[in-house]
Amino acid sequence: MATRVDEEYDYLFKVVLIGDSGVGKSNLLSRFTRNEFNLESKSTIGVEFATKSIQAEGKTIKAQIWDTAGQERYRAITSAYYRGAVGALLVYDISKHGTFDNVERWLKELRDHAEANIVVMLVGNKSDLKQFKAVETDEAMSFAEQHNLAFIETSALDSTGVDTAFQRILTEIYRLMSRRNLAADEAQAGGIKAGQTIDLNGNSKDKKGGCC
Amino acid sequence: MSGLQGFLGKLDPQKSQQSQPSAVPGRLTTSSRGKGGKQKSKAIKGWEENEAGGDQQRDDQRADSNDNGAAMNNLKINDVLLSEPNINLENLKSSAWCGLPSSSRGEVWRLLLGYSPTNRGRREQVLERKRGEYWRAIEGCGLGGEGHDHPGITKTEQVLLRQILVDLPRTAPSIPLFHHPSLQLLLKRVLYLWSVRNPACSYVQGLNDLCCPFIWSFLEEYLQENNKTLTKGIDVSREIPKQILQQVESDTYWCLTSLLSSIQDHYTPNQPGLQKQVYTLSKIVERTDSDLYNHLQSHGVEFIQFAFKWCNCLLVREFDMYTICRLWDTHISEGGEGFSVFHVYTCAALLGRFSETIRGISDFGDLFQFLQGGMKDMTESWGEEEVSVLCSQAFVLKSLFQNSQAHLG
Q1: CB–CB of A49/B365 below 8 Å?
Q2: Which of A46, A51, A69 sits opposite B365 (nearest CB)?
Q3: Domains in chain B and their CATH numbers?
Q4: Which of A33, A180, B6, B361 is 20 to 30 Å from A117 at the Cα level?
């Protein structure tokens, strides 16, 4: 992959945004990567994509984030994008319980199509809609514990928790990777044609993260 | 628009007169009895008050420039539309292929999509029957009334309705017109009825985008009959009578149905027709612009990543409303194969048009951004000439490859 000189990074991690239609996946992405929010953004057709680099434990980590369409109809197509992903933000809308009920189905999607060690973070978005809260924090938290997921509540609208969510999942992926200290052949990890995980110190890294 | 009608009027006053609503059955008009005149004068006054708005001036200019380009063509189209009791569809197609003036676009689309009959004597009656049929179907499927609560529908239908309701406010967000409550209701009913009547496909995100060019063209048709023109921020409550909105709605439904019937497998599970189209596109580009193809390949950009949306939303998201309507003139004039076949060559021509720009981008993220949405910034200034060139290039590509599929193997 051709890389601009001003965008050097130590690690490139692929992260997918999944969850029901209308929960705010695209706005989480635009808030994180461009600090933008659109109350009425267009629905995502197929996939969209953006990158952003962050610092974690002294390393520059470039996140390659794939935003997928939420409608069930598109799952056959979007699940192809799970390949090579080391992290997933599974998003629901705290004001619509139905979107939380579907979280289990999304976990199954990940089990079926993603790498076994993918780091998953459950994200309750639209936390600004306090008066319409339909999914209690405790309920979501115990679900997350039960399924070994990280958990956070965010608001793409007022920015609450957005940077923290991405920072946490990327740091977690990095730590797991360092802990394992695997130096597998990067080709084995496969999947990210556009940008293999590159360690600029000269070592190839296994892109796989691990479940927390 | 008034400019074009004036131009036509000078050339042939009789024809100009003929193009008044009463002479063309089935056009979107309110009842010819008295009331309309009063509404019209009031509405025009409101219009003039708004005229200083910059956005509207820009919109007017866009409509003007597109229409002036097609002025001569308009003469031919009016000839076809008005001269014979039975319209010759082949003649109409060949004229419409080069672009329609927005004053007759709605009428021609209805004819070319097989919704409006070619026999002028039968037209009004048939359209009235079909429009009535639509409204009875809406009542029948439990979606009558103004609100969004429909207790009579099944659980599956409620899931479908919920998905449509999620997408309504996200339809063409930059065009306030589509966000007027009456138009949101219109979209909801059209999409819902189509989805329950086509269970093999049902609702697929992006179908909402496909309604917009129809709604836009039919509203424009009505406004131009009244010497006005459509702007993105038009005050629907004041400018469009309820009766017209109802006609626009039923016409949108029937025209959408006709369009989608030729590309059903774009929207069935796994969307095989769409995937095939994207594959064909990659093969065409591989053959015709290997530099571009190799550039995309070497940077890891796959056609499915960006062209999926082009084929799912039929390029509605890649152009503004004026330009997409003009582009659809050609697609609709291609008959049943406009969106199933010609469309893929249009996509190839579009990539060819921006080949140099794309080849100049060497970062995967930037490439992706450009193909995903950045292109729209570049097509925003497009007028008649650019679309004509694009369609001609698509035509050439189609002539080269459509009947020699071995080349694309």
Answers
A1: yes
A2: A51
A3: 3-14+270-408 (1.10.472.80), 101-261 (no CATH)
A4: A33
